[in-house]
Design goal:
alpha/beta; Transcription Regulator spoIIAA; 2 domains; about 575 residues; four-stranded parallel beta sheet; single chain; 19 helices; globular
Length: about 575
């Protein structure tokens, strides 16, 4: 059994960051001989990884298994030594035996290639490049087909696994589709039971675990035009592979506090999962099944248990203000002296009472997401929120004493008109006036991003705006909002958004481009050309209603026919006068 440390162990990690484990910490210095060793990898920075509740949930789920020894690894590993990590067993600096810091665990500096399992938690499609880079630097064969019996089993979970894992399917041995609390123990049990068997047999046994997708057992069938027409599945392989969720969804929460995370020593806790609103552009309302609201009493109890370690609490939810007990949660956190931060709010739920509770709980910044400046386009996008709702919310928050208001907008939404783009400036300025209401210190910022159509949403059939269109629209909005110098404006790049769009809706044809870009640093467009990928086919055309998608092998969230019905309604709304 894995040796365990003491409760609430606080110590500096290898990068000099202070960490406090809120659960019992595994003894990272030794792994019992009979344990399954897991390197849990986040293919981005330590700061982002330790701020990600999905990563923290996977860490806790693996660490609590009695026969699993789990360590962490990050793309930007900061390990002991002035020139990077060079432990005694790796040889002197410059020795070819030295493995890059990126390919070693944060906890002991052990090469991830020495673990039984290399498990990636991936939330965003651009992190596929980091996944490929970490495998390469560890000396692990990049493609599943090239790995022998002694190589680690490479697994991916996270939001990206739910949406569309196919762009990196050739790099993976298995994909965990669903909730880590249910899948991590089942995956570990299967691999422990099959230890010593040939790799092919282990993968076939693993594929029998509900929610585990083994890409090697499925072969895409392509038509004359290069599009997928179906999948040939090996005998006994499930079609489709269904996402797995626990009977009772537990509360996702921080299990390791770190002053090196993006949110500092803030304790994050999930208030609800999913969203009943199902805006047509958003995956959160479509992949998680019925919305789960965690009881206020449970949230308060969990928070009270960590207040002696930190007074900062982050409430995580796609629909915080929709929680039926949100006022009770805020009231109790305010009374116990917690300093609360929150995710975005739906403006139509914000009134003076809620705004006052937010301020009493220490909330200084609130985010509202109008998405677009025009009511018509909001309705088409499945977010029928009026300008009056948004202005009233801004006013209530300002009067209550909220210091800063963040607004989020998108450009390039389906059926967007020039007038809709121009309306962003008008609405943002009106919201500024309502929020500031003469207060000199009031701050308003606006983030503007290109819309990226995502799998498992009603807009998955639609094309993405061109890079030129997006650049022109972003420039127009930025110029207009910056004119008065009262609203701070940030904008995401159209080139990066288009890359995300290709990665979001592409298939296995992208694996070579991902390797070229992530491992060999070939520019993205050149990497696609060299690997024969036509991005226009992936993101520049409207897809037929019956077209087979790369991600159809997985059954996740809202059924396809209901997504189509929602798309047709959006189209009808868009053409109305």
């Amino acid at each position: 059994m894995t040796a365990m440390g003491s409760d609430r162990a606080g110590a500096e990690d290898a990068g000099g960051r202070h960490e406090v484990w809120l659960t019992r910490r595994p003894d990272a210095t030794r792994a019992p001989a009979d344990s399954l060793t897991v390197a849990l990898c986040y293919p981005e920075s330590y700061a982002l990884g330790m701020s990600n509740l999905g990563f923290q949930t996977a860490l806790q789920s693996f660490s609590q298994h009695p026969h699993v020894h789990c360590e962490r690894a990050f793309l930007d590993a900061a390990l002991p030594g002035a020139d990077g990590f060079a432990p005694p067993h790796a040889g002197a600096a410059g020795d070819p035996g030295i493995v890059a810091a990126t390919a070693r665990t944060q906890d002991t500096g052990t090469p991830i290639s020495e673990f039984d399992v290399v498990a990636f938690s991936v939330s965003y499609e651009p992190d596929y490049m980091g996944l490929a880079k970490m495998l390469h630097e560890a000396g692990i064969p990049l493609r599943s087909s090239e790995r022998g019996d002694d190589a680690p089993v490479v697994v991916m979970g996270g939001v990206a696994a739910l949406l569309n894992p196919e762009p990196v399917a050739d790099l993976l041995d298995a994909v965990a589709v669903g909730d880590a609390t249910a899948l991590a123990p089942a995956l570990a049990d299967s691999l422990l039971a099959s230890r010593g068997s040939p790799r092919e047999r282990r993968m076939r046994l693993l594929a029998q675990v509900p929610g585990i997708y083994v890409p090697a057992l499925y072969e895409p069938v392509y038509g004359a035009d290069g599009g997928i027409t179906g999948l040939d599945a090996a005998s006994g392989a499930a079609v489709p592979v269904r996402a797995v969720w626990p009977a009772r969804r537990g509360v996702a929460e921080t299990c390791v506090l770190s002053d090196g995370s993006h949110f500092g020593d803030t304790y994050l806790i999930e208030v609800s999962r999913g969203c009943a609103r199902r805006c047509r552009y958003c995956a959160a309302g479509h992949v998680y099944g019925p919305t789960t609201f965690h009881p206020a009493a449970e949230i308060s109890d969990r928070v009270s248990n960590v207040l002696k370690e930190t007074g900062r609490v982050g409430l995580v939810s796609a629909a915080l203000a929709d929680h039926p007990e949100v006022r009770d949660v805020l009231s109790e956190l305010g009374e116990c002296g917690a300093e609360v931060t929150i995710s975005s709010l739906h403006a139509d739920r914000v009134d003076e009472s809620l705004a006052s509770l937010l301020v009493a709980a220490g909330v200084r910044t609130v985010t509202l997401a109008p998405e677009t400046g025009a009511e018509r386009l909001r309705s088409v996008a499945g977010k029928p929120m009026t300008d009056r709702d948004l202005l009233a919310a801004a006013s209530a928050l300002g009067r209550a004493g909220v210091e800063s208001l963040k607004l989020y907008f998108m450009v390039g939404l389906p059926w967007e008109r020039d007038a809709d783009v121009d309306a962003i400036d008008t609405l943002a300025r009106r919201m500024f006036e309502e929020f500031a209401s003469g207060r000199l210190g009031a701050r308003v910022s606006a983030g503007v991003s290109p819309f990226v159509p995502k799998p498992r949403t009603p807009f998955q059939w639609l094309p993405m705006a061109s890079e030129r269109e997006l650049r022109e629209k972003l420039s127009r909005v930025r110029r207009a909002l910056s004119a008065g110098r009262r609203i701070e404006v940030t904008a995401s790049g159209p080139r990066e958004a288009r890359r995300e769009g290709v990665l979001a809706r592409g298939g296995r044809e992208l694996s070579e481009a991902i390797v070229l870009h992530g491992v060999e640093n070939v520019p993205w467009k050149a990497a696609m050309r060299r690997s024969g990928v036509d991005p226009a086919r992936i993101i520049d055309r409207e897809r037929g209603e019956d077209e087979v998608f790369p991600w159809d092998i997985l059954e996740v969230g809202v059924p396809r026919q209901r997504l189509l019905t929602s798309l047709r309604r959006a189209r009808d709304q868009a053409v109305r006068p």
